[in-house]
Amino acid sequence: MNKKSLNPALNIAITVYPHLLITSLTLPIEMLRAGEAYAKGHLNPADFRPLSINLIAKNNEPIQTRTGLAIVPDFTTANAPYNDLIIVPGIWRNPRPVVRTNLEIVEWLQESFETGSHIIGVGTGNCLIAEAGLLDGHPATTHWHYAKQFSHDYPLVSLKPDFFITQSERMYTVASLNALADVIVHIISQYYGKAAAQHVERNFSHEVRKPYEDQRYLEGAVDRHPDELIAQIQFWLKTNLASELNLQEVATQFSLSYRTFTRRFKLATNQSPIEYWQQLRVEGAKELLASSNLTIQEVALEVGYNDQGHLTRVFKKVLSQTPSEYRKVVRRKLFG
Questions:
Q1: Helix axis angle, 177-192 relative to 23-42, nearest 10°?
Q2: Which of 9, 33, 59, 182 is most buried, judged by most C-beta within 10 A?
Q3: Is 61 exposed, middle or buried (0-12, 13-18, 19+ CB in 10 A)?
Q4: Residue 231 and residue 243: Cα distance in Å, rounded?
Q5: For residue 99, is it left (φ>0), alpha (ψ between -120 and 50) or beta?
Q6: Tell me: the pLDDT tens digits for 71-115?
């Protein structure tokens, strides 16, 4: 028997305009609907809220896309209802013409945020949010190809081009479709709980992915110390375990001498960069050994060691057991 919701709908709007990246429109809709369907079958009716998803444009005219599919708006910015969440899709190529010709959407985003809406911007779609002034003084990211242009056009925004996700107050910005999928999983967990989010993630992302919380740049959270550049390097190290760069090359990438890098890193974290990166790699290996069927050699490569022997030596030094022994123990605990 179908469960009937006792609660009002969650209103979600997606802005639409010419030259939008249609995948950044369809992907969140499909993922959100999958989360809704799972929740409808598993949540108590008292806890379930259906979704109302609408497309918002500056006028009612159908919008042609590069795919040949036409998008028909549900509402205009003049008559759109209140929305709990607004998604601003990415834009094909140079975003400036789209921003100039959609100032109605820019104004509507500003008004919607002021009345309590959460906003997710995708790639160059973040230019519309920045144009509204909502990102001034806050972190944001965008498509890498337009990062310099974004910085030029919106100098008051704290652009974080090395991050795929930023979160500030009720605003999220993402740099890619994969990052968008991760944020949508996070949103589903907030709307419908962890089980619904995991269900959607399993169905839409088959590869091993890092949790949303491990990927974002969260405004105000600087890895428990005030050195923002070192915090950015820590994030880079966490998300590039398999990198072939050595730490001296990492320092150069962030415009630091190796001596300054090691001094600031030790001061901020009370660990040397070498100790920290080894710790990250061991933790990454532990996670893969517990949750995947990768061989020990494949796990070693995934976390930046050239061969199984190197991983085994580090593992025995840190944990006093081999990766194989650790896998047997942890799997007995998980599945025994």
A1: 20
A2: 182
A3: exposed
A4: 18
A5: alpha
A6: 999 999 999 999 999 999 999 989 999 999 999 999 999 999 999
